[in-house]
Design brief:
Layout lengths: L11 H22 L10 E6 L9 H6 L3 E6 L3 E6 L3 E8 L2 E8 L3 E6 L4 E4 L36 E4 L7
Parallel strand pairs: 7-8
Antiparallel strand pairs: 1-2, 1-6, 3-4, 4-5, 6-7
Length: 167
C-alpha cells in the first residue's frame, strides 16, 4: 500500500465549495422572506472579491477596495434580493446610499458573530489570493465586533474547506 493519495477525478473541492456557498444563499433567502429583518442579535459580515465576474458595486468602492471588501448586514440595509446565483442589497457608506450585486462565487467569507458561525471559501476566480481589507464601514456596523479569526480559541465555529492538491 502506498502513502501517495491518487488525484481525484471527481472535483470534490469545487462541489463542497458550491454547496457551502448555497448555505449563504439559503440564509439570506430566509432573511428576505422574513421581511429583510434580522432576528435577534444576528448580523452578517460578508467578504467578497470586488473584481470577480458579476460583482456590481459603485466605482468609488471598487477604487477604495481594489481586491476584497467586507460588508455588514445588520441595521441599515434595504432591497435585499436573493437569487440562485447571488444577491443584491442596498447599503449606506458614509451616509451615501449604494446598491451592490454580489454573486455567491465572489464570496470568500461569511460570518454571523452573534452565534460564532463562519464559513471561509477559496476564491473561485483564478489567481486571486486573499488580501488584507479595511474594517467594514457601511453605516450601522458596530466596531470591535469583527469576524472570528480562523484557529482562534474562542470556540467559534468557522468552517474552512481547503483541499490540498498534488502538484
Amino acid at each position: 500500500m502506498s502513502d501517495d493519495t491518487p488525484d481525484s477525478l471527481i472535483p470534490y473541492d469545487s462541489i463542497v465549495q458550491e454547496a457551502l456557498r448555497a448555505v449563504v444563499g439559503r440564509v439570506l433567502g430566509e432573511i428576505e422572506q422574513g421581511g429583510s429583518e434580522l432576528p435577534g442579535a444576528h448580523h452578517f459580515y460578508i467578504t467578497f472579491k470586488t473584481h470577480a465576474p458579476g460583482v456590481s458595486i459603485p466605482a468609488n468602492l471598487r477604487e477604495r477596495f481594489p481586491d476584497e471588501m467586507t460588508i455588514v448586514l445588520q441595521n441599515k440595509f434595504w432591497n435585499l434580493n436573493v437569487r440562485e446565483d447571488g444577491f443584491a442589497v442596498g447599503l449606506s457608506f458614509n451616509q451615501v446610499p449604494a446598491e451592490l450585486d454580489i454573486p455567491y462565487a465572489a464570496i470568500t467569507q461569511f460570518v454571523d458573530p452573534a452565534v460564532d458561525f463562519g464559513l471561509q471559501f477559496q476564491a473561485t476566480v483564478a489567481d486571486m489570493a486573499p488580501a488584507e481589507t479595511e474594517h467594514p464601514e457601511n453605516d450601522g456596523a458596530e466596531r470591535g465586533d469583527g469576524p472570528p479569526v480562523e484557529g482562534s480559541e474562542d470556540g467559534s465555529n468557522v468552517v474552512t474547506v481547503d483541499f490540498g492538491r498534488k502538484k
